[in-house]
Amino acid sequence: MKTYFECFPCFVKQALRASRLFTDDQKVIKQIIDEVGMLFPDISLDKTPPEIGEFIYGKIREISGVEDPYENLKNQNTDEALQLVAFCKNIIAKSIDPLFTAIKMAIAGNVIDLAIHHDFDIPSEIKTVIHKEFAINDYELFRSQLERSDTILYIGDNAGESVFDRLLIEQFAHKKVIYAVRGTPVINDVVEKDAKRAGIDKFAEIISSGSATPGIILSKCSEEFKEIFNKADMIISKGQGNYEGISEESREIFFLLKVKCEVLARDIGVPINSLVLMRLS
Amino acid sequence: MKTYFECFPCFVKQALRASRLFTDDQKVIKQIIDEVGMLFPDISLDKTPPEIGEFIYGKIREISGVEDPYENLKNQNTDEALQLVAFCKNIIAKSIDPLFTAIKMAIAGNVIDLAIHHDFDIPSEIKTVIHKEFAINDYELFRSQLERSDTILYIGDNAGESVFDRLLIEQFAHKKVIYAVRGTPVINDVVEKDAKRAGIDKFAEIISSGSATPGIILSKCSEEFKEIFNKADMIISKGQGNYEGISEESREIFFLLKVKCEVLARDIGVPINSLVLMRLS
Q1: Hey, of B10, B27, B40, B261, which one would you mutate to test binding to chain A, going by the most A CBs within 10 A of its CB?
Q2: What is the rounded CA–CA span in Å between residue B72 and residue B233?
Q3: pLDDT at residue number B163
């Protein structure tokens, strides 16, 4: 997805929100906001939003002097999500179509997103999502592609959310699943240690994208990641950031996401807050 | 009022909205957004938001090459408001307290604000405002100060809105009213020709602030304006922009406004969308 004009105020908002999550030093916050503003002339509209995210959150990492400023928050989100595993598994097991329910559960987990919201209530989001219809629903294509596939690349999004990804991956019995995480901590996106804390390593091989963008941008990823991206039988991409980065790649990808802003809503052509299970190819 | 961190994304939003009102040239819009971003380091938090507005809208005036890029829109807003004069006068005349009703009507006119919204429905706003309680109501202080005053400085805000200011000024029988307008066109703020189109000149003397800030900043105003500001028996300030510019001046001012953003809501200590008739001194 390209960058829209409406993304510019949002970059500043994200910088402010992310700054406040690790500091209340007004000078530091101002410095980060200023750096984002000064970057504007370098942001061409054909860049994707995660490229700008990489800069913003990289700047925060640099100024904070901490490799992973959101580590505690991420651990907290993951631990809260882990407490819901038994509850969620019970809903999945009792449902008419456990695969479809697990997909919805994975999207419910997408509510854990510090870049957009930082007030979220996972149990109530689960209830809402389970009873909500998809605005775009390519489930039949998803199911038949899954049946035909041996190797699945599942691109993770946020820490905490990855607990719900695990519940979906548990449905892919006898498949080889590769779970991609960010190469460097970037806001609350999932990195290897977060994925392990969520228990993903019991059900999938974890690989790094080799990049610090909060959304996959193929040209910035490692050769190893690119090879898996090109060769996997099926790709599942979670969340808005990954959509923004790879929605225009010319291979089949299944996107699972909740539409969290007006710009994405317009890009996809659905209302804000829609649930989307969409195949692009 | 000082500038808050939340104002920074809003400056970018305002630049985008104001740009789109006069052009659909993507390069021009990008240039304006870039210039606003690059200005961030020069915006200290002790500046008031209208100072930044002066820069943004000055840049638009410069890039558009047009002295008053919103002239047509302003004329349209004024003409629409003029069509409601008989309707409004009837409501005022039939009310128990015509002065109080005219104050509410003047605040209803404050909905005409291209810097914040550009979708507004004046007749429905009038109905809403007339039936809504003030969140801060210094009406008794307002009325008694009015009775004691001979010379009233009434600081206008937006074009179109000034038609409703006129209805209030018509209530100030036998007073000398001076209606202040912006010295230079700045978005849809009222300048002399807009005030005349609204018929203000029949009921008040029109003076220029001598400045291009979309909200009075005393240090930027002409000596003539400053003298009137200091000597007037009573000052009535309309709208959010003027509040942002002069809320910390050390003289008695009556502010009439609708609270249009979260930052102002926090600064005043009332909910967003509140109606305020407040004396500061």
Answers
A1: B40
A2: 35
A3: 96
